[in-house]
Design a protein that fits this description.
Elements: E1 4-11, H1 17-25, E2 28-34, E3 41-46, H2 47-57, E4 63-68, E5 75-84, E6 91-99, E7 105-114, H3 118-122, E8 126-129, E9 133-138, E10 147-150, E11 159-161, E12 172-173, E13 180-185, H4 188-199, H5 217-225, H6 230-236, H7 250-253
Parallel strand pairs: 1-4, 2-6, 7-10
Antiparallel strand pairs: 1-3, 2-3, 4-5, 5-6, 7-9, 8-13, 9-12, 11-13
Length: 258
């Protein structure tokens, strides 16, 4: 049996949103344990202890033993799903999948790369990870913490696919054999330069005349000549005879006293 971690859990009887909020308020995380041969079991997990567990896991696939007070038998499981609040990033709910020591199960295992790619080292290529997880089937004792992919011989333009992975004893790869995992591609800067070069017009091609879409400077002035000048605007605003004069001329408009 490979490395296992122990996580203390408590049974949870109440269900619903209100009950889950009370669990979170007590600094715990509501969880559920699914089993192929047993009914789903509602649990509560201490938040600080779960955070410590995640740090130990560090992205690896490791089975977890669930230790519950009053139960001698420990349930063997792995983390199926973690739900977090998108705003506060707090843990909302955990899904655990129970497995049996003598029974094969399916799980997604992370991909890691080993070595320095030939294309990166000698051809200025860039390593691109196409698949971060792979789906496998195995017994608990054969579960690899990760799947290592050797990229030493990978050149620019080449790709390592599922079919090119080295066999692992007791492990069956379930993904499509043609699925890409790691590729070595050309640098992005060179790709951008090629696109710009393709978009550049050929020598001698007629370029659009300057100012074709906009009127010439002389035309703009000519068009503005028909507009009334500032002084004309004031003249146009002069009151007609007999009309009320502006406030500034109210005194002069009043008849003189005899």
């Amino acid at each position: 049996m490979k490395t296992q971690l122990i996580l203390n859990v408590k049974p949870r009887t109440q269900t619903g949103r209100s009950a889950s909020r009370r669990v979170r308020k007590a600094n715990a995380i509501p969880a559920i344990l699914y089993g192929k041969h047993t009914k789903p079991e509602k649990l509560s997990i201490d938040t600080p202890e779960f955070v410590r567990l995640l740090k130990v896991l560090s992205g690896r696939s490791i089975l977890i033993e669930l230790q519950q007070a009053g139960k001698e038998e420990k349930a063997l499981s792995f983390l199926q799903e973690i739900q977090r609040d998108p705003i506060t990033d707090k843990y909302l709910h955990l899904d655990l999948q129970e497995v049996k020591a003598d029974e094969k199960f399916e799980i997604r295992v992370p991909i890691t790369t080993a070595g320095e790619s030939f294309g990166v080292k000698n051809q200025s290529g860039v390593l691109e990870i196409n698949s971060h997880l792979l789906r496998i089937r195995c017994l608990p004792k054969d579960l690899p913490e990760s799947i290592s992919v050797d990229v030493t011989e990978l050149k620019v333009g080449e790709t390592i696919k599922v079919s090119g992975l080295k066999p692992i004893a007791g492990v069956e790869f379930l993904d499509f054999k043609g699925q890409p995992i790691v590729s070595c591609v050309e640098p992005v800067a060179e790709i951008v330069q090629e696109v710009v070069a393709a978009a550049t017009p050929a020598d001698g091609a007629a370029a659009p005349a300057a100012g074709a879409a906009t009127p010439a400077a002389g035309d703009a002035k000519a068009g503005a000549a028909g507009a009334p000048a500032a002084g004309d605007a004031k003249a146009g605003a002069t009151a007609k005879p007999g009309a009320p004069s502006p406030a500034g001329g109210a005194k002069s408009a009043a008849p003189a006293k005899k």
